[in-house]
Amino acid sequence: MKKKWIVVGFLTAVMLQTSMTAFAAPKQMSDGGVFDAAYYASSNPDVKAIFGTNEQDLYMHYKMFGKNEGRLPVAPTTYPTPVTSSVTGMMENGFDPVYYANNNKDVVAVIGNDPQKLYQHYTLFGKNEGRKGCAPTSTSNTNTNTSSGTTSSESGKYKYGLDETQYNRVEQRADSNKGNAKSLVNKINDYRDDKNKKELRRDDVLTEAATLLAMEMDDNEKASSTRPNGNSYSSVFSQFGISGYDYQGMIYQKNNTSDMNKLLDEWKSDSSDRDELVDKHYKYVGVGRSNKYWVLLFTD
To answer: What is the chain's Cα-based Rg?
Structure first.
């Protein structure tokens, strides 16, 4: 694998830019980036010759080499600014491409005002540089939280886009489940050891994110990889500032048991859950639990 990356680095250092023609619709990746694997493969035949058309491999190449070499992750588009609602629907966590373009002229001067590229810049660079993805909400507006019956200002976002009451609920739930989480991860690691897989380490932020997903399932009375707002579960990674990974996964189940052996046995009996438990790429895990649901989140 190391030799393969060396070869790619050499090839990409000397290759000439190739023609760019779109072949498929861009896709939002698990880390929030926008990428068109078919376009990238067709526009970079030297990369395709080594990696083929595997989406994850191509995206990894783009992040590690391609973006620094000026390769485009998607074909140039002609989306207008301001954007239409269908384009805005691709953006997560309230990202406003019009606001971002108007308040980051240096970014627009380099990449233009394509909403996809602006969003990609924000997720990969902007938020770490302290740039705002949308306009601050007015402090004069109030909102009633119907799930808790409390009233808070729209600007009262405390952490991870949650108000203080919501965040405290997540923290309290994660803290109360700490003992079971530790026991469960130990049992998963014993199982992975039997399969000659690397040990997983519990991660506090992943645990908070998994806990929020479990609580959303509880509130919505539905086990699903789609969140109540219609976003994929993977949107929780960017919400909690989890980035820099190439592989991510999830296991979820409606089950109020506190018997960790029973819980693990049920996951081991399901082929897709079993594959997640022993995936060789994973290094970190977060364990979330609500009243009725369990959620595991994995990253490398």
So the answer is: 21
Going by DSSP bridges, is the β-strand pair 284-289/201-202 parallel, antiparallel, or unpaired?
A: parallel
Q: Measured between alpha carbons, how far is 114 from 292 in angstroms, rounded to an integer?
A: 42
pLDDT value for 25: 59
* String of DSSP letters for 100-149: HHHH-HHHHHHH-S-HHHHHHHHHHTGGGGT--SSPPPPTT-EEEETTTT
Q: Which residues contact 186 (CB under 8 A, 6 or more apart)?
A: none
Q: What is the mean pLDDT of residues 177-206?
A: 90
Reported in sequence order, the residue ranges of 154-194 that DSSP labels E, i.e. its strands, are 157-159, 162-163
How far from the centroid of its chain's Cα atoms is residue 59's Cα? 14
Q: Any bridge partners for residue 296, and if so which?
A: 251, 287
What is the rounded average pLDDT of the residues 63-80?
A: 69
> How long, in residues, is the chain?
300
Task: Report residue 240 as tokens.
Answer: 């909690």
Peptide bond into 80 cis (omega under 30): no
